[in-house]
Amino acid sequence: LAVQSGNGTYSDADRGSIQIEIEQLTDEINRIADQAQYNQMHMLSNKSASQNVRTAEELGMQPAKINTPASLSGSQASWTLRVHVGANQDEAIAVNIYAANVANLFSGEGAQAAQTAPVQEGVQQEGAQQPAPATAPSQGGVNSPVNVTTTVDANTSLAKIENAIRMISDQRANLGA
Asked: Where along the chain is composition biased (Low complexity) (predicted)?
């Protein structure tokens, strides 16, 4: 909408209507951000900022080692990974990787057959801290209002929107998404 308002083909009345739509969309985005939760933690607002996330080390958990024999010789290689996933000895998942996939799988630097995985799902790795909520200063920043009533305001708002998208992408990268 900011691009439409900034391109110069709309009248002031059209831009006013676009501004009303932007305000409605902003209210909806704020409502969604205020209610978005994962594991009872608010992800897109600062409501969970005071919550303490404990690391696996603090919980006394140790990473599980996954070691499996692998054979890799030219293009005729195969690899089987068995991971114990349940309380009983016979509860395991087996993954077979055949010749067509092996060359691609191990082509990167530092590829190893032994990896570590957390013992309990949903617990962050040792030393990891809770990521900061995706918020920014309100003065001229991401949280400042989007205004498209003039061409100049629309272009300024477009820059703010692009900055917000960049901040969200950075936050997602920090979360491993």
From this structure: 118-141
